[in-house]
Amino acid sequence: VPAADAPVFGAWPEGFLWGSATAAAQIEGAAHEGGKEDSIWDAYARVPGAVANGDTPEVAVDHYHRMPEDVAILKRLGLDSYRFSTSWARVKPGDRAVNEEGLDFYSRLVDELLAAGILPWLTLYHWDLPQALEEKGGWANRDTAYRFRDYAMAVHERLGDRVTHWTTFNEPLCSSLIGYVAGEHAPGRQDPHAGLAAVHHQHLAHGLATRALREAGAEQIGITLNLTNALPNDPNDLVDLEAARRIDALWNRMYLEPILLGAYPVDLLEDVADYGLAELIEPGDLDTIAAPIDFLGVNHYHDDNVSGHPLPAGAEQAAEPTARPKRSPFVGSEHVTMPSRGLPRTAMDWEVNPSGLRTLLVRLGGEYPNLPPLYVTENGAAYDDELSADGAVHDVERTEYIADHIAAVHDAIRDGADVRGYFVWSLLDNFEWAWGYDKRFGIVRVDYETQERTIKDSGLRYAGIVAAAKASGIR
Ligand code: GBH
């Protein structure tokens, strides 16, 4: 595959990990096979109007049945690592006994990856809680954190002899505030108290699982956060500066500080004082949450341009994926708006600004002296691409997006950021949550009728960048 003309932006650090990422509910399908029961996404997708076009994760891209073919694609692309998630509802359906048949699937996947020379990078929670646990209160129920630790241990017991890299949560912000407050993701609740309870209980679950995994001998343990640069729309406007502070507190520091410093930010606790976060913290919780981690995963797609003023009349609003009413996910800061900066946008309406990734990666090291090594665990773009008559997918914009962001990562490393790897989101077109199959993020196209896979130009270019980077010598 490698293209000789790919830019490499100079040499890369020794051992820099190149990969691609997916998530169980977005690709596996087989939603009710092999002993798997409903996750909250299976249940939520059945709510009329919840997901665009009434799409569901029932079949997705049939990865459950096509796993060897998908691993062969990773190998063909020359990637070092594959970031995937295990489905809790497949491993412990209804949170009952362990479903060995579910674990068998992940065991085969891990073996297939290792045989292909690809490092498995396993995420335990990418948003698909067993529906049976949601019916007991879901993440708003503190007990769910202890159930998560049990599930993590069940996966480790079966795969711990072969999997070295463990991620507890993917983007807990989304599965708490977007799922329990905005109601735009499963379970579709719109309750700020429940949302902040979900935040704290996911934190606790992360800490409990981190400790238990450590004791069980897991080598590398971390968490993936979706971090953003919260930029004041007008840096000279105090109202915009205050709004940006609030979003930085809620989006970034609400996660970074309990995990890295063992405390919630004081300003955040004030911003959300009406919603009971402080009251949920039990003695010892913050110590548990601050259990040392070996790496921090950073998912970054776009910056957030933040204002405390209403949007100008007639400003174009981002399209809504679904027919359901959506609440603001900005708990305690519901007045905040995100005006356009007039930059180019992807099909998600997200602004493209590669230098934001560089800024973010460099800034984190400056703000947190005990920051562990960073991995960009997701970065990528949705565009409406099509299969051409020549049988290829000429996704020029995605190709540029990926190359420009890789260049930004290289710049960040040159500026001193300790970044050890980069994973493109996503290996395959897939179930894009509330957007269903409308938005394509893959570097490999999937025909949803035939399930045929076609490596897009962006995938070929990425493979070329990886090959050239590896040949470029060591920084
Ligand atoms: C990631 O999250 C996911 O991990 C992945 O599963 C998904 O497919 C991929 O990105 C592409 O969407 O509340 O209106 O301010 C998405 C990143 C960042 C999207 C925060 C929603 C907040 C929107 N998310 N963003 S809003």
From TrEMBL:
Gene3D superfamilies: Glycosidases. Residues 307-337 are annotated as: Disordered. Transmembrane segments: none annotated. GO terms for molecular function: beta-glucosidase activity. It comes from the Bacteria. Its EC number is 3.2.1.21. One of its GO terms (cellular component) is cytosol. GO terms for biological process: cellulose catabolic process. Keywords: Carbohydrate metabolism, Cellulose degradation, Glycosidase, Hydrolase, Polysaccharide degradation. The active site is at E171 (proton donor), E378 (nucleophile). InterPro entries: GH, Glyco_hydro_1, Glyco_hydro_1_AS, Glyco_hydro_1_beta-glucosidase. The keyword Repressor does not apply. Substrate binds at Q26, H126, N170, Y301, W425, E432, W433. It catalyses: Hydrolysis of terminal, non-reducing beta-D-glucosyl residues with release of beta-D-glucose. PANTHER family: GLYCOSYL HYDROLASE, LP05116P. Belongs to the glycosyl hydrolase 1 family. This is Beta-glucosidase.
